[in-house]
Protein 1
Amino acid sequence: MVLTDKFGRSIHDLRISVTDRCNYRCVYCRTGTNGAAFAELPFADYLRMARILVSLGITKIRLTGGEPLLRKGIIDFVRELAKLRTVEGNKPEIALTTNGHLLAEIAQSLKDAGLNRVTVSMDAVDPQRFARITRVPNGFDSVLAGVRASRRAGLDPVKVNCVLLRGFNEDQIIPFGMFAREEGVVVRFIEFMPLEEDRVWTPETVVRLDEIVARMSEYRPLVEIERQQSETARRYRFGDGIGEIGIIAPVSHPFCGHCSRIRITSDGKLRTCLFSVLDHDLHELMRRGSSDEKLVEFIVKAVENKEERHHIGEPDFVPASRTMVHIGG
Ligand code: SAM
C-alpha cells in the first residue's frame, strides 16, 4: 500500500520532530522567551509510528525539531530507524536537520548508526551577524565545526540551509556562495514563510528567488541544474563547475502540487501540511491501546485529506495552528 491523498499525490517523505526545545532563539523563528510548548514522547513511540508509516510507503525519514540533538538517545534512535525496511525492502533514507551546535562530536556516530545525510541551518557566515540572528554568543565556530565533521564523516552531500530575511542577512548571499565553494557544501536559501512566533512576516520581508539569483549572478554566473519533480529546491551550479547552491521558494514559486510530505510533531500529532490549521492526534490513539490496524486506518484517512496547497500572501490566509519550531521544520 502506498499513501496517497485525494489529489493523487503519493506520500513518501516523513519528518519527525523529537522535541520542540531549541538551544537557539533565531529572531525570525522564536520570540526569545518561549521554550517548549508541547510534550516529547519516548523514542519507542516515534519508532512505532515510523514503522507503520514505512509499511505504508514512506521511504525517507528526516529527524528535526526544535533542536533534535538536544534529545539524549538520538543516536540509538537512528540505529533503530535504520533497521526498518521500506515496502521495496530497502533501508529508509535517514536525514537530520539541525542547527549544528552539538553536531561536531557526534557526526561520525550518527553516520555509523545509519544516518545518510545532514542539513545544517546557518543564516550568516559572519560570526557577529550569526550571533545576532541566533541570540546565542559564539555559536558560529561550533556550527562550522559541525559542518566540517559531517563532511569528514561522509554525510554527503552536507547541505546548509539559510533563511533570508530582509534587513537582516540578505547581504550574506554572495558570502554564502563563496562558503559553498570553499567548504564543499550545498548552500540552500529558503524564502521566509509566515510560521514564526513573533508574527513579523510581511511579503516585503521575503527575499525572493529572482532576487537571490540576480545577486548571486553578480558574483559568478549560475547554471540551473535539472531537478526531479519532487525536489523542493531549484538547483544551480556556478559557471566554472565549482560549488552548488539551491533555492527553496515556497512563497514565490510554490511546489504544493508535488508535495510528498507528512509530519509527526514531538507530541505525536500527524500534520499533513506545514500550514495545517488542525492536526491528527495519532499518539492519543496509541495511548488508548489501538492496534496497528486502527492506526493505519487513521493515518490513511488523515493523509487522504491532505491540504491542497498553502495560501501564503492571499487574503484568505489563515495562520497555521503551530509555529515552525513547534511543528518541526
Ligand atoms: N533546530 C533545527 C535547525 O535549526 O535546523 C531544526 C528545526 S528548524 C525549525 C528547521 C528549519 O526551519 C531551519 O532551517 C530554520 O531556519 C527554518 N525555519 C524556521 N522558521 C522558518 C520560517 N518562518 N520560514 C522558513 N524557514 C524557517
Protein 2
Amino acid sequence: MRLGIISALAEEQNGLIEAMESPVKASYGMRGYTAGKLWNVDTVCVLSRIGKVAAAMTASILVEKFGVTHIVFTGVAGSGDVGVRVGDIVVADSLVQHDMDASPLFSRFEIPLTGLSHIASDRELTRRLSSAARDFLQSEPGSSQFHRGLIASGDQFINKRSQIAALKDALPELLAVEMEGAAVAQVCFELGIPFSVIRTISDNANEDAAVDFMHFVQTVASRYAYGILKNFCIPT
Ligand code: SAH
C-alpha cells in the first residue's frame, strides 16, 4: 500500500508531516506533496485546499504522479443530523455531491454518465479507519460519538438552518456536510482506487457555523487527525 492522505486545511493535518520518517517534499500544481514513512506506512500527505475541484485535482495527481494506491481524506465537517454533535466523528459509507443537479436530464444528485448519485467508500479501508477512530475516541475524555453513514459534499459552506434543513429533506440519511469528500470519491471510483473519508464535526451548519468552525479547527482538528491516523497506521 502507498497511502495518500488529503486534507483541505493545514490545521486538519498538522503533526502528520512532522511524524514522517525521511520526508521528501515536492511541489506540483500549487500543492505541496510530502512523501515518507508514516509509522511504517509508505505515505504521501497533501493539502487539497477547499472545494470539489481542488480536491478532485489533488486526488488525481496523488494517483497519477505520486503513485498512491489508496486514499484517505481526513478533515472537519458540519453536522447533518441532530444526533451528530460537535466533536463526534463521521466515517463515510457513501458520499453524494449535493450540488449536482442535471435534472430533468438525469435525476437529482446523479453524476451524469456514471449512473450513480451515491459513491460507496472502500469496505476494507473504511473498516480499518472506523476501528482506528473508535479506538481514538475511547482514549479521549468526553462523550464524543462515532457514526458511519452518508456524507454530502458541495461548493458551499453551509451556515443556515434553512440550508441544512433542505438538504436533510432531500437526503434523509445525511450525517455530515463538507466540501471535498464526494469529489475525491468520484475520482477514486473512476480510477479504481480504494478510498475512505473521515470527518470530525466542527459545527452544526447553522448560523453559528463560521465561529464554531474556526474555534474547532484551531483547537481540536489536528489532534484528532494525528490520533486516528496513528491508530490506522499501527493497527492493534
Ligand atoms: N473561512 C474558512 C473556510 C473554510 S470552508 C477558511 O478560510 O479557512 C470549510 C472547510 O471545512 C471545508 O474544507 C469543508 O470541507 C469543511 N466544513 C466544515 N464545516 C462545514 C460546513 N458547515 N459546510 C461545508 N463545509 C464545511
